[in-house]
Amino acid sequence: MKELVEVIAKALVDHPEEVVVTERTEGRDVVVELHVAASDMGKVIGKQGRIAKAIRSVVKAASSKDNTRVDVEIVG
What we know:
The protein is α+β, with helices and mostly antiparallel strands. The protein has helices at about 1-10, 40-45, 50-65, and strands at about 20-25, 30-35, 70-75. It has three helices and three strands; from the N terminus they run αββααβ. It is globular, with a radius of gyration of 12 Å.
């Protein structure tokens, strides 16, 4: 899931070199943290959180075949 979030985020931001994605496992849950430049936060979150919600939906759909729960956290 880490690679998927990284590809999506790099396509959205102005500074793709500053995109950092980390992944940690907590039991059956996986937490993916997305770090972007401060100037790109609005592009990743979107108006009323629509882009962030879309990223989470895509990751959730991709992770459903693995029978795991994936949370995407956008860290500023």
